[in-house]
Structure formats: structure tokens, C-alpha cells
Design goal:
Chain B: Pfam families: ABC_tran (PF00005). The complex is a heterodimer of chains A (274) and B (343). Chain A has one domain. Chain A is 73% helix and 0% strand. Chain A has twelve helices and no strands. In chain B, helix 5 packs parallel to helix 6. Helix content of chain B is 35%, strand content 24%. Classes of the chains: A mainly alpha (274), B alpha/beta (343).
């Protein structure tokens, strides 16, 4: 048999890119061969847009006036970024249960590679999901009213939140069983709803409204509305402090989440998972 | 001969519970060592320590001459691990699985492909290489799983319960694959709950119980400790039991064990085939017609009863006999309903 020795570390960055591509490619093959997963993944957000845009939306008023579907889309984008955590939890926890994680950890491969690879692959997944939502949004009348730089910044804010949620997902995935991971949407769903995603927090009971205002999802959705120049973007001085500072919070919240969960996830991964 | 795996006084505990208590181990390079024991005996913990997934609380261990605590990264360069769960990706083909691992282990594309082809060939999966793994049999999956641990051609290969849940034919395929590996000079340390599995592939068996070594030796040595294999005869009526028991005592020279409820009488035998032939001939001569004759390896349960004076815990829930795979036909095959415990 040939003797094969893993290359010495040093070309770390190149391998990081290669690993991420290998992992992302696996996900891609899964999609192509399991079209039902794509159909489901696409149908669900589209259904949500239609359901809220046309069914509930007719009863919801946009703060400051404007088209509800234009208000809705940035909320949908933010929700997609948050719910992405559920798929990260599922994949990480399945890999752990299947012994894939242990195989990585017993191999002469940089331990960070698997984690960073996972996070880049997940960002790619989310990029695809966001594209579907954007197309869907454009079809139901969503537009951006700002310059290309602001639009790019808006997309950046969304991906920043997705990046933060990856580390929450990896950490949780290393702890919970695949069965429990399948239930990850249960806490994520209300988390993404008790926010300014679909309805302005001002229209909620005061206590719930306060929670919604401070919800990191609100910051991301609020910032996206501002950066895309969409209806419901808070600029007036009457709004609450978190709503007025959505742009700052949309950066601070994810950074805080990363600061907490990235080290936790890395430590959990490095330590023997039982 | 060099020592591939060496452990001295290895110990570990989870909270207050000691799962490994002063284990000494020495596996010569190029041999197969089987850790035999029931669930909770400390087998998996030992493998996890030796593969650097777990830091031992006490003791020292070296793998391929490298200390597992002082230089875990150095150990990882020489080992492969196939755990209890199957790591293969169902959606990918066999070849894609192996190439993916090769790439993740940082082989360049061409080398990864070439290595995948080599491994597919060696594990008899060339024909199935481009089929999706979800259409593979349990044995094929397991072989692919083993192959993907061998992408980097490790010197020491760890296998945690390689054939648990496989049917006899698939187990045979996995054993054949392991034998081929050893022929190439790889050292294998495996865990198992089945004595017959250890018998099939291991050079050395270490019996673990509650984190301690209770016996060590060759499979043959271990069996002879128990008086060899078990031959048992199922009679048609209880009245025939004494006659058959006398006959068995005469032929095997051992004191037969009766099981009146099951209409069975059995005795340990040293030479399977000779004993079987002699018993059949003697029955024929005595014109005694019986329902069934079977020969089987002593079960882990019987090993344990002998070594520790108590049964394994899982023997209470699952009859260990059903996991035995020594079936070679109606007369010589083991009867899965056999409920025979040495007195």
C-alpha cells in the first residue's frame, strides 16, 4: 500500500479554502440529488411571503405608512438568516452522532478547518436561500430605494447575522442529539416572530413590544429596511432607542453573539464530546 | 517485534464513576488485538483515549511509539478510527465518499482519486463504486466506512464494534477485509462483544469487565479455559435425556449439563468436527433419534460467567446466542433458541 502522509501545516489558508469547498460541494450534491429538500427549502419562504404579503398583510398597518410587502421583505430576509441556525444545528449534530466529528478529530487535520469549512458552506447555503427570497420579493413588488453601496451594506448586515447564528448552531449542534436538533426551529420560530419581522413592535402589548424592540432580529431587519430604503424604516425621533439605533445594533448584536458562541463552539469541539 | 500500542495503568472516570481502572495493554505491531466485554466494560473509553479523543485521568499510553497525552497530533498522524456509527454519506457514491475524505485529509485531487480507487478495489467495492451508498448493504457500508478511515494508510487502526448489527454474511465480509489489512502489516485494535468475532480475526483477546482486565490470551487459550466449544443435543422426549447424557459423557469425556425444560443436554468439546462425528455415530449405533445437534462457541455470557462468576447485563435482555453467527447448517449449526448455561 502506498504510504500517505498528510501535508505539514503551513499552507493553512489554502487548505481552509479547499476544505470549505469540499464541504460546501457535499451540501451542493445533496441538493442536486435530493430535489425534494430544495423544493421544500424554496416553497417554505415563498409560502411565507405570500401568506403574510397577501393574507395577514391586509390587516397589518406599516408604521409610517407604505406598502406592507415592501415592509415585509427585509423582515423575511432577517428571519431566513436566523432560521439558518436550525440547519447548522441539524448538520453539526448529525455529523457528531454519525462519528464524522470524531473521525476529523482523530485525524491529522487542522481542527479549525472543519468548523470554518462548515461556516463557509452554511453561508453559501444561505446566499442561495436569500437569492430565492429576493427574486420572490421582486415579484411581489419589493424594491430597493437606495444606492448600490447601501444595498450591499444591507446584504452585509444580513450575512453578519447569519455568520453569528452559525456559531450558535455549531455550539448547540455539538451538545444536542439529532432528534433534539430537529426541534431547533421550535425556539427559533418565535424568536424570529417576536420582533419587527412581520409587525411593528408598537402594535404589540407594551411588555412584548419591548422584548421585540430589543430582539437582535429587529436590529437586523430594521437596519435592512434603512439600508434598502424600504417602508417602515425608522428614522423619526419618536421611535424607541433600539429602533433608532438599528444600524449600530445590527452590527453589535452579531459581534456579541460571535464573541460568546465562537469560543464556546471551538472549546466544545476541541474537548472530547462524549 | 515492536509494540504498536502500549498502555500502562490507564484509568478514566466520568464524575464519580470509574470507567477504566488501571488497564495495561501491549499490542505487537502487525497483529490484531480484540477488547472483549459487555457494554460499559470500558472498551470504547480505551479506544477514545488511544485515538486522542479523550485524555486519560491516570496512566500512560503510546501509539506507534508516540505518547497520546504529550503529542496527540503526532499520534493522529499514524492512526485511523472507525467508530460504532457509520460515517459514510448516503447521498454520495462510494467513490465520492472516499475522494471527499481524501480531500479533507489534504491529499491533492489526483492522489485522492487514486487512493479511492485502491481502497475500493481492496475492499471489493469497485463494482459498486459509482452507486449511491444508500443502496449499499450493511456490510458494504461498513467496509466503505473502514476504507475511509484508511485513506491515509494508518499504521494503527482502531475499530469500535465493527460488526455490531450486521448479519452473518456481512460480518464475514468485514472479517475478510480486516484479515487483508493485517496481511499488509497494519496493527488493528478492535472492540467486540462477541467471542466468535475475536476468534475469527484476533491474535490476542483482552477481556474487560467494569474497566478492568479480567483475562488475556489467544482466542484458543480463552476457549480452552472454558473447556472449548459447546456441543448440545436436543432430544424428543424427557425420557431420552439420561441415555443421551450417558452417551455424551462417554464420547466427550466431560460431565454433560442437562436442561430438562428445554429437553437439551450439552457438553464442552475440544475438537468440533471430531466430537460431532463421534456423537452422530454413537447416536446412530444406539438407534437414538434426536431433534437437533449443535456446536457453537461459548458466548460472551458464558466467558463472563466463568471469569467473573456473574452474567453480563445485556444477557438478561438479549440472549447472547442470537448474536452468534456460527450457523453452518441445520445439524451442525447453532440453535438460536439454545439456552444453555454451564453448571
Amino acid at each position: 500500500m502506498t504510504t500517505l502522509v498528510a501535508p505539514a501545516p503551513g499552507s493553512a489558508l489554502r487548505w481552509l479554502a479547499a476544505d470549505s469547498w469540499t464541504i460546501a460541494k457535499r451540501d451542493l450534491v445533496h441538493w442536486v440529488r435530493n430535489p425534494t429538500a430544495i423544493v421544500f427549502g424554496v416553497t417554505f419562504p415563498v409560502m411565507f411571503v405570500l401568506l403574510f404579503g397577501y393574507v395577514f398583510g391586509s390587516a397589518i398597518s406599516v408604521p409610517g405608512g407604505g406598502d406592507y410587502r415592501e415592509f415585509l421583505m427585509p423582515g423575511m430576509f432577517a428571519q431566513a438568516m436566523i432560521s439558518g441556525a436550525a440547519s447548522t444545528v441539524a448538520i453539526v449534530s448529525t455529523d457528531r452522532a454519525r462519528g464524522v466529528t470524531d473521525r476529523f478529530r482523530s485525524m491529522p487535520v487542522s481542527r479549525g478547518a472543519a468548523l470554518v469549512g462548515r461556516s463557509i458552506a452554511d453561508l453559501c447555503n444561505s446566499a442561495l436561500e436569500l437569492t430565492v427570497l429576493v427574486v420572490c420579493g421582486l415579484l411581489v413588488g419589493w424594491v430597493t430605494r437606495t444606492g448600490p453601496l447601501a444595498v450591499l451594506a444591507g446584504i452585509g448586515v444580513l450575512f453578519l447575522m447569519r455568520f453569528a447564528m452559525i456559531w450558535v448552531g455549531i455550539f448547540l449542534g455539538l451538545i444536542v442529539s439529532p432528534e433534539a436538533a430537529g426541534m431547533a426551529w421550535a425556539p427559533i420560530f418565535p424568536l424570529s416572530m417576536v420582533a419587527n419581522t412581520f409587525v411593528s413592535p408598537e402594535q404589540m402589548p407594551a411588555w412584548l413590544g419591548t422584548i421585540a424592540e430589543w430582539n437582535p432580529v429587529s436590529a437586523t431587519a430594521g437596519a435592512a429596511r434603512i439600508l434598502f430604503g424600504n417602508a417602515g424604516a425608522v428614522t423619526a425621533g419618536t421611535a424607541s432607542w433600539p429602533a433608532q439605533n438599528a444600524l449600530v445594533l445590527a452590527v453589535l448584536w452579531p459581534l456579541l453573539i460571535v464573541a460568546v458562541f465562537l469560543p464556546l463552539a471551538v472549546r466544545r469541539y476541541a474537548r472530547a464530546a462524549r | 517485534m515492536t509494540t504498536a500500542v502500549q498502555a500502562v495503568g490507564l484509568g478514566h472516570s466520568f464524575g464519580d464513576k470509574t470507567v477504566l481502572d488501571g488497564l495495561d495493554l501491549a499490542v505487537p505491531a502487525g497483529t490484531v488485538c480484540a477488547l472483549l466485554g459487555p457494554n460499559g466494560a470500558g472498551k470504547t473509553t480505551t479506544v477514545r483515549i488511544l485515538t486522542t479523543l479523550l485524555r486519560p485521568r491516570r496512566g500512560r499510553a503510546t501509539v506507534a511509539g508516540v505518547d497520546v497525552v504529550a503529542d496527540p497530533a503526532g499520534v493522529r498522524r499514524h492512526i485511523g478510527l472507525t467508530g460504532q456509527a457509520t460515517t459514510v454519506d448516503d447521498v454520495l457514491t462510494g467513490r465520492e465518499n472516499l475522494v471527499m475524505w481524501g480531500r479533507l485529509f489534504h491529499l491533492d485531487r489526483r492522489t485522492a482519486r487514486r487512493r479511492a480507487d485502491e481502497l475500493l478495489e481492496r475492499f471489493g467495492l469497485t463494482e459498486a463504486a459509482d452507486r449511491r451508498v444508500k443502496d449499499y448493504s450493511g456490510g458494504m457500508r461498513r467496509r466503505l466506512d473502514i476504507a475511509s478511515s484508511l485513506v491515509l494508510a494508518p499504521r494503527v487502526f482502531f475499530l469500535d464494534e465493527p460488526t455490531t448489527g450486521l448479519d452473518p454474511r456481512n460480518r464475514g465480509e468485514v472479517w475478510a477485509a480486516l484479515r487483508g489489512l493485517v496481511a499488509d502489516g497494519t496493527t488493528v485494535l478492535m472492540t467486540t462483544q462477541y467471542l466468535d468475532e475475536a476468534d475469527q480475526v484476533a491474535d490476542q483477546v483482552v477481556v474487560l469487565d467494569e474497566g478492568r482486565k479480567v483475562a488475556e490470551g489467544t482466542p484458543a487459550g480463552l476457549k480452552s479455559l472454558l473447556g472449548g466449544d459447546r456441543l448440545s443435543v436436543q432430544v424428543r422426549e424427557a425420557a431420552e435425556l439420561p441415555a443421551v447424557a450417558d452417551l455424551l459423557a462417554r464420547v466427550t469425556g466431560a460431565e454433560p449439563e442437562h436442561d430438562r425444560a428445554q429437553l437439551r443436554v450439552g457438553a464442552p468439546v475440544r475438537d468440533r468436527v471430531a466430537a460431532l462425528t463421534a456423537v452422530v455415530r454413537a447416536l446412530d449405533d444406539a438407534m437414538l433419534a434426536v431433534d437437533d445437534i449443535s456446536i457453537r462457541r461459548p458466548t460472551l455470557d458464558e466467558v463472563f460467567l466463568h471469569l467473573t462468576g456473574r452474567r453480563t447485563t445485556e444477557a438478561e435482555t438479549t440472549p447472547a446466542e442470537t448474536t452468534q453467527a456460527e450457523t453452518t447448517g441445520r445439524t451442525t449449526g447453532e440453535n438460536p433458541t439454545a439456552e444453555e448455561v454451564p453448571a
